[in-house]
Amino acid sequence: MRSLIELPQMHHSTRRHRGHTLTRHMRDALGRAIVIGTYDHIQFPTETELSSQFGVSRSVTREAVKMLTAKGLLTSRPRQGTAVSDRLSWHLLDVDVLHWLMDGRFSAGLFKHMNEVCIGVEPEAAALAAQHAALHERDVIEKKLEDLRAAPCATNDWLEAEIAVRLEILRASNNPFFMQFGHLISWVLRHSDRIAREVGGRAAKLGEYVAVVNGIKRGDSAAARAAMRHVVG
Question: At what angle do helices 47-54 and 12-36 cross, to 10 degrees?
Fold first, then answer.
């Protein structure tokens, strides 16, 4: 990477906003570089080297590195400097890390792992929604299903409505841990949709979603779980 930005003279509030922008830019650039393996076999740059490389202040560099450390991508040790963390330490459900993975290092294996998470989480979320969803939550799911029913199949409107149904079911599970998987599930659905359109594969059909929602409305956990397993599978 080369020097990207020079800071013009500006008043304090504008300079502070500019600093936040530069920090986010640097965080994103370094995050993507780490994820695609740029630093797999070389020493991670020092604070001074990064500041020079990006053309930013050391305070901006320090803040960007701190953000990446909080996401598990970097580790800092006294007298050893900063290094890229082992991939098992990365916070894979962090929205930024997830996006960098998707943008920069996608593979069939990565998609398989992500889909396995959906298979493990969504049927149980549907079962919990059947048990615990409040009346208004069931009404919201029903409304999202109507949006799906109104959308032409194999269109972007269908995809957005499909994602909305799945996310509402996660919320209706009333399990805050399951809700954290929303970004991952959304991306898997978007990628699955793209593959299905490219190769003419199978996408989930309306009737399958109707079966899930009916199970939730009846409070039938087993039916909701089985129907969602069919949708995800």
Answer: 110
Pairs from 172-176 (Cβ < 8 Å, separation ≥ 24): 172/125, 172/128, 172/129, 172/132, 172/133, 172/137, 172/138, 172/140, 172/141, 172/216, 173/124, 173/125, 173/126, 173/128, 173/129, 173/132, 173/133, 174/128, 174/129, 174/132, 174/133, 175/125, 175/128
Cβ atoms within 10 Å of 164's Cβ, excluding its own: 18
Alpha-carbon gap, residue 149 to 207, rounded angstroms: 9
Domain ranges of the chain: 12-89, 107-232
The CATH fold assigned to 107-232 is Four Helix Bundle (Hemerythrin (Met), subunit A) (1.20.120)
In CATH terms, 12-89 corresponds, of 1.10.10.10, 1.10.357.10, 3.30.470.20, 2.60.120.10, to 1.10.10.10
φ and ψ of 175, to 5 deg: -110, 110
Digit-coded pLDDT (tens) for 145-185? 999 999 988 789 999 999 999 999 999 999 999 999 998 99
pLDDT in tens, 83-119: 999 999 999 889 899 888 877 666 678 888 888 999 9
